Every structure is written in structure tokens, then in C-alpha cells.
Amino acid sequence: DATAVVGARVAPLGGEHVLLLVEDRSQARRVEEIRRDFLANVSHELKTPVGGISLLAEAILDARDDPATVKRFAERIGGESERLTRLVREIVDLSRLTGEDVIKEPVLVDVAACAIEAVDASRVLADEHGIELRTDVDAGCFVWGEADLVTTAIGNLVGNAISYSESGTRVSVTVHAAEDLVEVAVTDQGVGIDAEEHERIFERFYRVDAARSRATGGTGLGLAIVKHVAENHGGQVSVWSEPGHGSTFTIRMPLAGQQSSGGPASSGTS
Ligand code: ADP
Fold first, then answer.
1. Which of 160, 189, 208, 212 to mutate to test ligand 1, by most ligand atoms within 8 A of the CB atom?
2. What per-residue confidence (pLDDT) applies to 261?
3. Among the four residues 15, 68, 115, 118, which has the most C-beta atoms within 10 Å?
4. Cβ pair 199, 183 in contact under 8 A
5. Widest CA span of the chain, in angstroms?
6. ipTM of the complex
7. What region holds the Histidine kinase domain (predicted)?
């Protein structure tokens, strides 16, 4: 591929012979582009809450004689700070997940326990949104990896399922063993996603509806983290969705073995 060649050197070897060194730097260039885009996105995303906080701080000074307004602005500063904290944590998580040798000491992870932990942590959000949370998990499905990462990935899917659904609907989380895989499925009855968006939603900072994502405190990094967690556990994530009919996100990971309770379950879930 001639267009991909960006480095070529000719070294004389004496007589009529020359050595032509051709280096294909297209891959390196692509990696560099991705890194640059990511940094540009990060600084853009950081500027929004930081700018908001400084405007709100000025507004508080102007409104200091009006306690109700001061309270309202102070609460919004709290909200922006939370968003900023979450964004920074997710950027750090993602940069770790895209590095090398991510899971240094894999342990047996009880996937059902991770799912229950993630669902429990989402209960307050579900109540706020009027969403019913259901679980149907098989005990004893283990994968090799890191429990906190699996819990984070399932938590991101549950958080999205709640955020992109209307009040009065249901979100269900299932964990089942299917042949040599563990399948974690998170299903909602929410807004759904157009087919042409299905691949892009796993990209960093990609949002179908930026306004809705921001309104729900979204960072645009949640699904990228899910994808990298799945891949770091030898698995993958897929989506089924129909606009207006909801979505199902499924993480499939190689099953490390089914253990009866009392087995090494505790090693991965602490
Ligand atoms: P965000 O923080 O914006 O939710 P994600 O990476 O988690 O970022 O998701 C990327 C985009 O995919 C979201 O902005 C949203 O448009 C879409 N999305 C993710 N999960 C769902 C879902 N369960 N239902 C509908 N849309 C979803």
C-alpha cells in the first residue's frame, strides 16, 4: 500500500547495490491520531464543567443577597463537580484499560456476585427514575479476571439502561452460562438506538443524543469502558436494539468453570 508508506531510506552498499529501507508507519500514525483526538476530546469535555463552575461561582457573588438563588447555584456547582469527578475517574479507568498487561493477577471472579453488587449500587438511581430492577442470575459462573472491573462494566450498562428509559418501565439483568461462555445481559424498555449507531456507541465520547447524555450526567465513556473490560476478560460486548422498543447489551466472556457454592467464590468478589 504505497499511500501507507511514510518512511523510506536508501543506503548505498557499494558498487551497484543499494539497500532500500521501507517502513510502514501507517499503524503508528493511526495510533498517534487516536491519541491526539482523545486528548482534544478530554480537554473539551473538561472545559465544560470547569467553565460552568466558574460562571456559577461568579453568579453566586452577584446574588449573595438572595439566599434562594445562592442555594440553587451552589447545588449546581455540586452537580458539576460530581460530573467532573466522574469524568476524571473514567478517563483514568479507560487509560488503564487500554494499556498493556491490564489484569496482572487474574483471580476467579463470580460474575453473578458482580451483577448483584452492580444492581444494588444502582437501586437509588432506579428509584429516582421510577424504574423496576429485576435480576435472574445463575450462581457459580466464574471467569478469570478482576471482580471490580466486571462490576464496573455491568454497573455502566445498568446505569445506561436506567438513564435511557422512561419511568414505569423495567430493567432486567441476567447472568447465565451458555456452553463455554458466561453471558451477562442487561435489557431495558427504553428509547432504543438506531442500527447505524450500534458500532459507534462503543467509541470514546460518542453519544447519540449529547443533550440527553449530559442531562443524565453521562460522560460518553461508559460503553468504551465496558468494551475494554469485556476484551480484557477474553470476551466481547454486543448490542441488540430497536428505537422505541428498548435495548439489550450482552457481555460474553469465557467461562472459567462452574463451581458449587462454597468454592473459590470469595476470591474474586471481595
Ligand atoms: P453516556 O455517558 O453518554 O451514557 P456511554 O458510552 O455509556 O455514554 O453511551 C454512549 C451512548 O450510547 C449514549 O450517549 C447513548 O446515546 C447511547 N446509549 C447507551 N446505552 C443506551 C441504552 N441502554 N439505551 C439507549 N441509548 C443508549
1. 160
2. 45
3. 115
4. no
5. 89
6. 0.98
7. 41-257
